[in-house]
Amino acid sequence: MPTELVVLVSVLVFPGGLFAFALGLALKGVDRRVAARLQGRVGPPLLQPAFDLVKLGFKRTMVPDTAVPGVFLAAPLIGVVAMALAVALVPIAGVYMPDPRLGNLLVLLYLLSVPGIALMIAGSASGSPFGAVGFSREMALMLAYEATIVLVVAAVGLRTGHAEGQVVTFSLAEIVRHQQEHGAYLLDPVMWPAVAAFLFFYPANLGIVPFDIPEAETEILEGPLLEYSGPALALFKVMSALKTVVVLSLGIALFCPVAPDGIAGFAVWLAMMLGLLVVGISAVRVSIGRMRIDQAFSFFLKWPLLLAAASLTVVVVV
Amino acid sequence: MSTVPETYTIPVGPLHVALEEPMYFRIDVHGETVTHVDINAGHVHRGIEYLTTKRTMLQNVVLTERICSLCSNSHPETFAMAAEQIAGIAIPERAAMLRVVAAEVKRIASNLFNVALLAHLVGYETLFMHVMQVREIAQDIKETVFGNRMDLGAICIGGVRYDLDEETTGFLVAALDRLVPEIEAIVATYRTNGSILGRTRDVGVLTREQGLACGVVGPVARASGIAYDVRAVAPYAAYDRLPLEVHVLTDGDVWSRAMIRLAEALTAIDLIRACLRDLPDGPTRLAETPDIPPGRAIAKSEAPRGELIYYLKTNDNPQPERVKWRVPTFMNWDALRFMLADAKIADIAIIVNSIDPCVSCTER
């Protein structure tokens, strides 16, 4: 198969595109079901996120009079495309290695901030005051958590680089290969603070409690999403599902990419995704309430940043 | 971006997920901070005051119960008290005790509902689900003893329309025994949980002076250090013979108001238990429905949200000439101006909920 075709398949079919879309919806369904059970509810069917998409697909997208129509409709598309590309950038140990031409960890970091930016654009283009509040909150939250994730990635990059005889590496493929040969960073005490900091990054990046501040339903009525309906809203839901796949698999690639080759490796990866979803997302969001944006901001500049910086310092010094 | 101005106006209501009833706040904000609040009312005016003058006294007991679901027992009770005052009726002792039981069961459910909503607004859905599940015990009591989950239909002029037999008393006692540890656990949670404390402590503060100036009543007053409870200062029904404890906190923030409500739910259980212990035998109502002579009367009671006042004027017709009521929310929502001053957008819903607004009572 020509390499261009391989790249295209990885973006459109596996692991990006169709596969990520289906997996993302399934993960969302599991998350809703698990959260419901933890709250003593029955919960929706596992396919509920898919049903929601079908329903939204049959509805009209209303564009408010106050909105800038082009930007308003383009925002969710930008988010979905960025996430579809991002999925193809994350290796799955023993199953999939991304083509180096697609980009490295730094490109992935940029892509990961696109959904947040898409929401900000959506909020301000909708012309709604709640969208404007959501915009400013999303921006503040991104400023807070991006510093943490950059330090975590730097710690991983430097650690791998040192071990491989370079200064630093931002190739996810190399990071995964290194851990497959020398053991996962999850078992490396030096990286534990970084792992902890990364766990804080999950709810913030995915916009769930306690960091669902930009979309807080009971405060600003979903903020940027307030004016969205029909297929445009469905695209935002797809974006969110894809983002779940990206950040979960990024966590596995950075800290625990050890699995046998082939089908067994794929099964192990799926199990890890599910476990991380339940522990890192569902359990977190049912056991805590929402923070105020000022509380979240100062929180992120304290603990996660401190933890990430601790790992980075040890990596650099040792 | 230049498209986002620094100061803007956001509408909260009249339909807003955080408000259970239609109320409209026009809020000017600078960044995340509230600079000005306009409260706009009148979205659920149904003309019930006018309607009462078209109904007979008997029919009005039914009508006033339907002004609002959460205070549905307090309205007919206070209306009946005013009518009894005009007619010079003393209700039987057993009826007085049974009125306390009905009122306090409603108080437990209403207070738990508000405290649950607080958790929902803070984004703590699990706690919301849990408190609502505990409230379900109080709902079971209403359904089993009174036959209905919201409107008890317990009150009539001259007494009550229900009675407790051995079976329902046994159920009531067992249900209360189940409620006490559950509510105590909720109190402990609200006292210690970081999510709740972080969002409710020092939020929406109303000082004692501001509270007195606004004439606030109910849990809002008692959380600001004003020890005013109609059940204590002007006892009605059987309250003067019961071990009523008036809870007062002095911080005046959202958290204090929630804690007062929880403490009052526990006190309500004590009151019901005392009633069941001392419940005398005898009739539950007058033998015949009394005729209400021409006259005027004012009656007041302590609804779950605070002091409820009824003014009743009758003439020779079977219909009253004028009925007017002042509900606790009417006094409390003026205080929102003080509570919302310099609040954050994130706290608006939490603060509004903390006065437990009952809009359908206020706008009838």
Structure, described:
The complex is a heterodimer of chains A (318) and B (364). Chain A has 318 residues and is mainly α. Chain A has one domain (3-317). Helix content of chain A is 71%, strand content 0%. In chain A, helix 6 crosses helix 7. Chain A is globular. The mean pLDDT of chain A is 83. By secondary structure, chain B is of the alpha+beta class. Chain B has one domain: Cytochrome-c3 Hydrogenase, chain B (Orthogonal Bundle). Helix content of chain B is 49%, strand content 14%. Chain B has 15 helices and eight strands. Chain B has helices at residues 48-52, 57-65, 74-87, 93-121, 125-146, 166-192, 194-200, 208-214, 218-223, 230-233, 254-278, 328-332, 336-340, 345-354, 359-363; strands at residues 7-12, 24-30, 33-40, 155-156, 159-160, 295-303, 306-314, 320-326. In chain B, the strands form three sheets. In chain B, strands 1-2-3 form a three-stranded antiparallel β-sheet, with no helix packed on it. A three-stranded antiparallel β-sheet of chain B has the order 6-7-8. In chain B, strands 4-5 form a two-stranded antiparallel sheet. In chain B, a hairpin with a 2-residue loop joins strand 4 (155-156) and strand 5 (159-160). The N and C termini of chain B lie far apart (45 Å). The A-B interface holds A 38-41, 124, 129-130, 132-133, 135-137, 209-210, 212-213, 216-221, 286-295 and B 1, 3-4, 8-11, 16-18, 29, 31-32, 119-127, 129-130, 133, 193, 195-196, 198-199, 344-349. Chain A: It comes from Rhodoplanes tepidamans. Chain A: The chain crosses the membrane at residues 6-27, 67-93, 105-127, 139-158, 190-213, 234-260, 266-288, 300-317. Chain A: It is found in: Membrane.
